[in-house]
Amino acid sequence: MSYQPIKLPDRVQLSEDEAIKKSKNFFSYMCKRHSVRDFSSEPISEKIIQNIIASAGRAPSGANQQPWHFVAIKDLSMKKMVREAAEQEERSFYSGGASDEWIAALEPIGTGVSKPHLTEAPWLIVVFAERYGKNSDGSRRKNYYVPESVGIAIGFLIAAIHDAGLVCLEHTPNPMKFLNSLCGRPDNEKPVMILPIGYPSQDATIPKAAKLKKPLNEIMTVF
Fold first, then answer.
1. pLDDT value at residue 177
2. Which end of the chain is more exposed for a tag (fewer CB within 10 A), N or C?
3. Which of 149, 147, 194, 150 is nearest to 173 (CA)?
4. CATH code at 134?
5. Are 23 and 216 in contact (CB under 8 A)?
């Protein structure tokens, strides 16, 4: 496809006062975002999941190749298989696969081998990264900036989840190659994250350490 410029179809520019107010309100709302491990069994409409994933698909990507795929899992038997395999990898991780330094860094978060959220949450979204594309004749097509592009899309996804009043948990067991066959995804895709999604349970907790965020002066430099 050759370059063909079109007129900017949408303009969302605000006045400075409106932008300050809106950006402050967005920040305040994002401060209420928490990674949650305790999920309610209350069902979530598939339409909400579709809208959330559609929003993630609007993320920018290298050369606009959109090297991602999202698999939404509601089926309990599939969720049980995901949990069983994930916990098997976690047992290896906590029994010697991870360094002492890594285990110590995780201690304030309270993680462990058991992953009940993978079956308790009404939905799982598995994010796949397309390591390379495939042309119609079966030949490979190089994708560019895949980790960066998929990372941006996951950021969109998490923001959309929070905007819908839901919570999630960013779960990254490794390796998770079994997810390709379970989810019917080709070998050129790599599973990079599982996100359980739903409403928090009535007795949901979060680690106290999760509230410790770096102040603005530590994450921003202005010239």
1. 85
2. C
3. 194
4. 3.40.109.10
5. no
pLDDT of residue 93: 86
Supply the DSSP string of 95-151, one letter for each residue.
IIIS-HHHHHHHGGGT--S--THHHHSSEEEEEEEESEEE-TTS-EEE-SSHHHHHH
Backbone phi, then psi, for 172, in 5-degree steps?
-130, 60
pLDDT exceeds 90 at position 82: yes
113 occurs within a structural domain: yes
Range of the domain at 129: 35-207
Residue 52 · residue 127 · CB < 8 Å? no
The answer to whether 72 touches 125, Cβ cutoff 8 Å, is: yes
Burial class (CB in 10 A: 0-12, 13-18, 19+), 153: buried
- What is the domain count for the chain? 1
- Looking up tokens 């069902």, which residue turns up? 43
Sign, Cα dihedral of 95, 114, 107, 173: positive
Nearest residue to 79 via CA among 184, 182, 162: 182
**Is the separation of the CB atoms in 78 and 118 below 8 Å?**
no
- Which residues make Cβ contacts (< 8 Å) with residue 159, sequence separation at least 6? 30, 55
pTM score: 0.94
∠ CA 213-196-31, rounded to 5°: 25
